[in-house]
Amino acid sequence: MSLTANAAIPAGRADALPPGARKLVFMGEGESVLVMNVDGQFFAMENSCPHAGASIASGPCDGHRLSCPAHGLRFDIRSGECVGSPGMRLVTFAVDVVDGDLLLRPSR
């Protein structure tokens, strides 16, 4: 399944991702999405920094700012925009909770 597909992408159970936790959802063809629970709110974004393709999954998150562990670029997890470089952004996903299941939809 492609990261840009219009269909909802299942991402597991919401109760399995408590506040502060994160997980990767593997899409095939080497693509993955990072899903995070920040203070009880779910966020999802492509797990690939637009600068050089590094995984962002292990990057530190301060509030709504996730840093790429490879080069330190910081991204707003709500919009995907790179702080200080507005032309650079992560692909983000809307996260719905339906009957306790996390479902992802491309948001842009």
Rounded average pLDDT: 92
CATH class: Mainly Beta
The ordered string of helix (H) and strand (E) elements is EEEEEEEEEEE
CATH architecture: 3-layer Sandwich
CATH-assigned homologous superfamily:
Rieske [2Fe-2S] iron-sulphur domain
What is the percent of helical residues?
Answer: under 10%
The geometry reads as globular
Number of helices: 0
Strand order of the largest sheet: 1-11-10-4-3-2
Cα Rg: 13 Å
β-strand percent reads over 45%
Concise summary:
The chain is mostly beta strands. The protein has strands at residues 9-13, 22-28, 31-38, 41-46, 61-62, 65-67, 74-76, 81-82, 85-89, 92-98, 101-106. The two termini are 17 Å apart.
Structure overview:
The protein has no helices and 11 strands. It is mainly beta. Helices cover 0% and strands 50% of the residues. The strands form 3 sheets. A 6-stranded antiparallel β-sheet has the order 1-11-10-4-3-2, with no helix packed on it. The protein has a single domain, classed as Rieske [2Fe-2S] iron-sulphur domain (Rieske Iron-sulfur Protein), CATH 2.102.10. A hairpin with a 2-residue loop joins strand 5 and strand 6.
